[in-house]
Structures are given as C-alpha cells and as structure tokens.
Write a structure and sequence with these properties.
It contains 7 helices and 17 strands. The protein is globular, with a radius of gyration of 19 Å.
C-alpha cells in the first residue's frame, strides 16, 4: 500500500556569495556575489520588509513581459559581463567556483536553492566508498555535476544547449576539476537514456532537473507532464543493481511535491530505499520568510 509522503522544506543555508535580501510585491531582491538584483517572483504575495531605498539601490532589475520567461534587464549600475561565485562543499573541504552572468532569460547561471542537493549527494557519494557512475540530465551549467565529481563519482552530463555545456566546462576549470572523469554531451535527455539502455550502460545515481518546456538539439519537444513519466521509466532501466540515489526537481509547474513523490515511488518500486519529497526554499535576510522555488522528490538506498 502506498504511504503518505514525508514532506520536507530544504533550505540551503551555507551560502556566502548569495543571499535573498528581501521579497514582496511579486519580486525578490537578491545578491549574487558583489551585485544586487531585483527579479520577478510571483509567489512573493506579501509586502517587502525593507523600504524603497533598499530596493532602488541595485545593479539591475529584470523587467518581465507577458511571454513566459520573456523580458529584459534594466541595468542601473555597471556590472561585469561575468563574475565568479563560490560555494563551499563542506564535507569535502573543497569549494565550487563558477561563472555567473545576467542572461536574457532572467537567470544568472546558478539556482542557489539546489545547493542542498549538492551537499546531500556529496555525502552519499563519499560515504559509499565505491566507484560510482552518475548521470546528470538537463545539467545546465554543471554545478551538480561538479559536486558529484568532486566527491569522487564519474559523471555523464547531458544538456540540449551547447552554450550551457560550454559554460559548465568553464566551471569545471574554475573549480580545479579538469582531471575528474566527466563526459560532457549535448543531446536530448530522453533519447540519450534510451540509447544507454540499449547499450547496457548502468548508473548508480541520477539527477533530473527538467524544465517545464524545452527543445532538444534536433527540435525534440519536452513537456514535463507528458514527457516525465516516460523519462522516469527509462531512467529506471539504466539504474545499476545497487543504485545510490535518484533526485528529481521540477520548477514552475502546478504539480506538488506529493505528485512527484508518487511518481518517483513508482519508478523505484522494488528497490530498497527511502524517499522524501518537499520544496526547495530560501530564507530572507530581512524578515526570515521562506520563499519556495521548486518541488522535489529524491530516493536513496538504505544500504
């Protein structure tokens, strides 16, 4: 019988180079390294805790349009084209270093709330004390890939964007991980996993961070509600006999953590492990309110 999911709020609270300063009125005020930005945040339906001065003393404001993810940056102060941020991998005594920049799609190359998953993965990988192969699908700028590699895993990184993969490889060099076994591949996630299954390739850990909508390098259409069940089934087929983990994040959808939990429970049926699900959140510096960014579900072995 299916059990009720355990719902958790995961907070990444060890950032130094990032902070959520304040939020409210449909926006969030953030610091990325030395720069302060205002970006849209529809879920911030309360009033800001800080006054207008804090919100006006910023380097850039992203002005959205009616199109999803559409808009442009309005820069009030000069910023570098790109700059380096750091995140401490405390369990490893190391740190990730990576480039960030203000992109046309409002993002800056890092989703700070996902750092809690990096810490979780590095702990599992180092504790396993065995060679591991990890697959990162929709890998973006590679920070989860680099965290897993820093912990000792061999990683295959997949993203449909050649630009994102190039950015990720730059981050590999910045983090001093050029010698780590990482395969960087521009491909459609589902097609790649299906080919790996036919080749008999297996993975001990899988990271899934799919967009709500996207296109593969050959125009393949990704729609999370339609495409995710097939991808989860395909991921199950490439899991090793002794898998360590599988983690799934989903942004900007109506699905709840409960729905993801049931989907992942089905995908991992018959595997001995524990599953938790919930929301990735960031805490304001101003009033301590929690801002939810994504829902997640993750499974780890009991061994």
């Amino acid at each position: 019988m299916t059990t009720s999911p355990r719902i958790t709020l995961l907070e990444s609270n060890r950032w130094i180079d990032y902070e959520l300063i304040d939020s409210g009125n449909g926006s969030k005020l953030e610091r990325f390294g030395p720069y302060r930005f205002v970006r849209p945040e529809a879920q911030a339906i309360w009033k800001p805790a800080m006054g207008p001065t804090a919100w006006s003393d910023v380097h850039g404001v992203f002005q959205p349009t009616s199109e999803e993810s559409g808009g442009h940056w309005n820069f009030k102060k000069q910023i570098s084209e790109k700059w380096v941020m750091r995140y401490p991998l405390e369990k490893l005594g190391k740190e990730l270093q990576f480039n960030v920049m203000a992109t046309p799609g409002r993002h800056l190359g890092v989703f700070p709330e996902t750092a809690s998953h990096w810490d979780w993965m590095t702990g599992l990988i180092t504790s396993s004390k065995r060679p591991l192969k990890v697959l990162n699908l929709f890998g973006y700028t590679g920070l989860a890939t680099l965290a897993a590699a820093a912990a000792g895993a061999s990683v295959t990184h997949i993203d449909a964007s050649k630009k994102s993969v190039g950015w990720a490889r730059e981050n590999q060099s910045l983090s001093g991980l050029e010698d780590r076994p990482i395969r960087w591949i521009v491909d459609d996630a589902l097609k790649f996993v299906q080919r790996e299954n036919r080749r008999g390739v297996k993975y001990d850990g899988i990271i899934l961070d799919p967009p709500k909508f996207g296109r593969g390098p050959k125009g393949e259409v990704w729609e999370v509600y339609k495409s995710l069940p097939e991808l989860l089934e395909s991921c199950r087929s490439v899991l090793s006999d002794s898998p360590l983990f599988l983690v799934l994040n989903v942004y900007a959808v109506r699905a709840s953590a409960i729905h993801l939990s049931y989907a992942l429970e089905e995908a991992m049926k018959g595997r001995e492990g524990q599953l938790d699900a919930g929301e990735l959140v960031t805490r304001e510096k101003s009033a301590g309110r929690l801002l939810s960014h994504a829902v997640y579900a993750r499974w780890e072995t009991l061994n």
